[in-house]
Structure formats: structure tokens, C-alpha cells
TrEMBL record:
Superkingdom of origin organism: Bacteria
Source organism per UniProt: Thiolapillus brandeum
Bifunctional transglycosylase second domain ranges (all copies): 85-136
InterPro entries: UB2H
UniProt-annotated stretches for the region Disordered: 1-33
The protein's name in its UniProt record: Penicillin-binding protein 1B
Signal peptide: none
């Protein structure tokens, strides 16, 4: 009888489970993963910054083109000698009366029309003129 040869199957040598899970190799892998994630996040942040910066430059150019020719399109109106009146303002009755007279307001008993005023002691009543703003309001 002929001798049969046994077929030998070689298996890869396996390391014991305790050695595979060694502390050093695991730490290296987690460091690599965290560095990879950090690089990815940094790259994404740089990309977003470039896109936002490019869009800001585009908007700046659009605004410049739209308004460059209209710089003096709105006529300027200068109203001299502004007088701020509010409760508690430090204006004497004589100063207010002089200002109303300079502005062409008429002294009457009861102001019912624009540009009319009256005075009773330190108390003034006046009807102001209408004012049109440059935009029509």
C-alpha cells in the first residue's frame, strides 16, 4: 500500500488577546485618529473661511458699483441754526422769543395757523411750519 501524505494546512499564528490589545498601540491609533480629525476640521474651517471671504469681496464690489455713480444724487439741504427744544432744555424765554421772531413766526393771541405763536408769562404756545424731508416724508 502506498503511503498517503497528509495535507498540512498552515495557519497564521495568532497572538494572545492580551498582547493584541496592548496599551501603546491603542494610544498611537487614537492619537492618529484625533490628529486626522483635527486636520479634517482645520481644512473644513479654512474652506469655509475662503468661501465667506470671497462672498464678502463680491458683495463689496456689488455695493461699490451700485452706489458709485449715485454719490451726489440726493440734493443736500442745509438748515442753519438748529435749535433743540425739549422739556428741561436750558433756553430762556427771551432766547425762545428771539428765535421765533428770527424765523418769521407771528405773535398772535391764539396760534391756529403755521408760523404763529403766543406767550403767557414763561409759557409759549406755537404752531410749527410743516417740514418736508428729502425723501418726501
Amino acid at each position: 500500500m502506498a503511503a498517503r501524505k497528509k495535507k498540512v494546512v498552515k495557519r497564521k499564528a495568532t497572538k494572545p488577546a492580551a498582547r493584541r490589545r496592548g496599551g501603546r498601540s491603542r494610544r498611537r491609533g487614537s492619537k492618529r485618529r484625533s490628529l486626522g480629525g483635527l486636520k479634517w476640521a482645520t481644512g473644513l474651517l479654512v474652506l469655509v473661511a475662503l468661501v465667506v471671504g470671497g462672498y464678502a469681496l463680491h458683495l463689496s464690489q456689488v455695493v461699490r458699483v451700485k452706489f458709485e455713480g449715485k454719490r451726489w444724487a440726493v440734493p443736500a439741504r442745509v438748515y442753519a441754526r438748529p435749535l433743540e427744544l425739549y422739556v428741561g432744555a436750558r433756553v430762556t424765554p427771551e432766547q425762545l422769543q428771539a428765535e421765533l421772531e428770527r424765523l418769521g413766526y407771528r405773535k398772535v393771541k391764539h396760534p391756529r395757523q403755521p408760523a404763529q405763536w403766543s406767550r403767557a408769562g414763561g409759557r409759549f404756545l406755537f404752531h410749527t411750519r410743516p417740514f418736508l424731508f428729502w425723501d418726501g416724508d
